Amino acid sequence: MSFTVFPAVDISGGRCVRLLQGRFGTETVYSDDPTEVAVGFSRAGARWLHIVDLDGAKTGERINRELVLKVIRAASCPVQAGGGLRTLDDVEEVLAAGANRAVLGTIALEDPDEMARACKRYGERIAVSLDARGGELASHGWTVGTGVPVLDAVKSFEAAGVARFIYTDVSRDGTMTGPDIKGLLRLKEATELPVVASGGIASLDDLKQVARLFSEGISGAIVGRAFYENKFDVKDANLAADAASNGRDEEPLIER
User: Fold this and answer.
1) How far is CA 246 from CA 2, 69, 239, 250, in A?
2) For residues 75 and 97, is the Cβ–Cβ distance under 8 A?
């Protein structure tokens, strides 16, 4: 097992976009063809992709359903997919289309029994998003505050059989202001499950900061805007993350 860099393919209105701090209405459109973007990342050497239907996450209606399934099928590397997966049937559909992992969010809070059924059936292929705003979980595509402390939710999700977590500091997402190292460390004190970090990565140095936590259980990082704005490419990201996660990078950890 190695540290994994996940290029993000976020879909809204049929286009590949990035939000700023999870706020709808702040979209930057990077491509009208998410399938082409996903294939490009695959060809560039991506080991996994992170695909999200932002509209589905917000409304529960999988407006981009067919497009998401098309992107999954087109990718030549493993894919984790989420956004609007509210039922076991939704989970089954994305996995049957070829996704290697389904990412659940709102369902984990609103229908824990259905989430537990998905975990029981698919085990290692189920991840849960921990979308944090001010230390509390947000749902419905980051638009609804739940009042549930992130660390309190972790144990109940573990008990349901979730295999891993994806942790996003929503206030940093799309800002390229650096990863939430302190939040990641607090989360790892609360769980032994693998955690994928998301939000704020702007440079290879930021990526290395996260990758150095590999021995602590941080198994990967999702990168979005930095790739789209050519701050670095997939090949360099993989090389930097490999070096840092394997201890070949001696720079000290900087807590932001």
Assistant:
1) 9, 35, 11, 10
2) no
Q: From CA 57, how far away is CA 211, in angstroms rounded?
A: 28
The count of structural domains within the chain is 1
Residues 214-237: tens digit of each pLDDT: 999 999 999 999 999 999 999 999
Q: What tokens does 92 get?
A: 């089954």
Q: Mind telling me the catalytic residues? A: 10, 131
pTM: 0.90
Type of residue found at 159: A
* pLDDT tens track for 100-117: 999 999 898 889 999 999
Contact at 8 Å (CB) between 193 and 244? no
CATH number at residue 113: 3.20.20.70
**Is residue 206 a part of any domain in this protein?**
yes
Q: Considering Cα of 171, then 212, then 154, then 100, what sign does the dihedral take?
A: positive
Could you tell me the residue range of the domain that residue 128 belongs to? 4-245
**140-173 confidence digits (pLDDT tens):** 655 667 778 888 899 999 999 999 999 998 877 6
Matching residue, tokens 């999870």: 22
Examine residue 253 and state whether it is found in any structural domain, yes or no.
no
Beta-ladder partners of 220 = 4, 196
Cβ atoms of 197 and 164 within 8 Å: the answer is: no
Does residue 189 lie in a domain region?
A: yes
